[in-house]
Automatic annotation (TrEMBL):
<keyword id="KW-0408">Iron</keyword>
<keyword id="KW-0503">Monooxygenase</keyword>
<dbReference type="Pfam" id="PF00067">
    <property type="entry name" value="p450"/>
</dbReference>
<keyword id="KW-0349">Heme</keyword>
<dbReference type="GO" id="GO:0004497">
    <property type="term" value="F:monooxygenase activity"/>
</dbReference>
<dbReference type="GO" id="GO:0046872">
    <property type="term" value="F:metal ion binding"/>
</dbReference>
<feature type="binding site" description="axial binding residue">
    <location>
        <position position="421"/>
    </location>
    <ligand>
        <name>heme</name>
    </ligand>
</feature>
<feature type="transmembrane region" description="Helical">
    <location>
        <begin position="7"/>
        <end position="26"/>
    </location>
</feature>
<keyword id="KW-0479">Metal-binding</keyword>
<protein>
    <submittedName>
        <fullName>3-epi-6-deoxocathasterone 23-monooxygenase</fullName>
    </submittedName>
</protein>
<dbReference type="InterPro" id="IPR036396">
    <property type="entry name" value="Cyt_P450_sf"/>
</dbReference>
<dbReference type="InterPro" id="IPR017972">
    <property type="entry name" value="Cyt_P450_CS"/>
</dbReference>
<dbReference type="GO" id="GO:0016020">
    <property type="term" value="C:membrane"/>
</dbReference>
<dbReference type="InterPro" id="IPR002401">
    <property type="entry name" value="Cyt_P450_E_grp-I"/>
</dbReference>
<dbReference type="InterPro" id="IPR001128">
    <property type="entry name" value="Cyt_P450"/>
</dbReference>
<keyword id="KW-1133">Transmembrane helix</keyword>
<comment type="similarity">
    <text>Belongs to the cytochrome P450 family.</text>
</comment>
Amino acid sequence: MAELNCSESWVLIGIVLVLSSVVWLLKKKGEEKKNGVPRGSSGWPFIGETLEFIACGYTSKPVTFMEKRKSLYGNVFKTHILGKAIIVSTDPDVNKAVLQNHGNVFIPCYPKSICELLGKSSILQMNGYVHKRVHALIGVFLKSPQLKDRITRDIEKTVRFSLSTWMDKSRHVYLQDETKKITFEILVRVLLSIGPGEDMDFLKREFEEFIKGLICLPIKLPGTRLYKSLQSKEKLLKMVSRIVEDRKMAMEKTEDKGFPNDVIDVLLRDAGESDGTHCLPLDFISGNIIEMMIPGEETVPTAMTVAVKFLTDNPTCPSPIGGGEHGTKETEGLFLQRICLDGLYVLAIHSKLWRKALKDVKIKDYLIPEGWCLLASFSSVHMDDINYENPCEFDPWRWDKTGAAVSSNTFTPFGGGQRLCPGLELSRLEISIFLHHLVTTCRWVAEKDEIVYFPTVRMKRKLPIIITPLQQ
């Protein structure tokens, strides 16, 4: 058979591309024929609207992608991003319904790199009885008065020591890095009862490598980001598994059933059913202990840093902290809580929940077809001026008007329903204690910096500051 010349080859390629596009469009149309599917656009063949979705993430207003489509199609719309047909919800009532689902309609649906790193036994990907049981065990422990008394002293001690090492006029402190050290140390103590030293340094170093792979190309070839992160996870698992096994053996040798020292104790003591069956496997405990370190590396330290940036950018902000005409402990506590909430509010600007529908489900008047991914955009709700006046501005007093209930449909920095973060009170406590000691014992000068929203919320330059003692 004669070889095709160059022009004929291009024609053939063009025909194949056109036919593929037609097949793709017909398939999408078939999926969307069901009555009630939200309006929207599937964008270009194959890539959909992914490029615009990512591009908006790098701007100062990452919710622009959502706002544009919301104005065209309403609060719930369809799109096609990251290789998936997706329905996006910016409706607080729809988001609440998804959060409160018990796993019989929606299941977690995360990017492949996250699934690879965390594994099938990850609490993030679990549903049903085991998830509910583990979530309850950890939540009860973290909210207990005994732990709060003990951890408050630990936080105070760690924060005071850290601030004392920062007070040097000759050097900059990169606040985002330093707050990570504080929160990671506190969280590891709660999870594993490990204090400062070689083990803590090892965990910190390997965990930083591990977490870099959460959002990356899902390629596991040697030298790739995912491959390196999986290697670090193996090192972490080896260390944490040894601690869990040693603790298990020690428990079997003693009858002491006092208050648990940490989360490992809590999970090891759980007997499952009343007859002692279905105890949590040791490898399950080890893997999820590592996963629970994530808030200490990302969420809480970023909220602390963003709060300090707010205070830096608003030096004339009237504050009852540290005395003054109305500077009582009660008013100071309320003001710190407002700042904490505003930091968490902005931190959630890139917050989304990914779920996959197991069957056709209708919420309000919207149909989510079986197999489709639903993206609940909490950030769009937070940045909607119908819910919050001047949503992009620092305003700690907004919470006097709106309230700050974590169960509110319009305020979800900690998730909600069965996925409500069990460590939310611990997070607030850490942020409040840190801000109290910083403001009442230090003065600081910060270099200009800006908030970056993609792939996660962070400071572009890690917020360099110079700190000196307040009384000098």
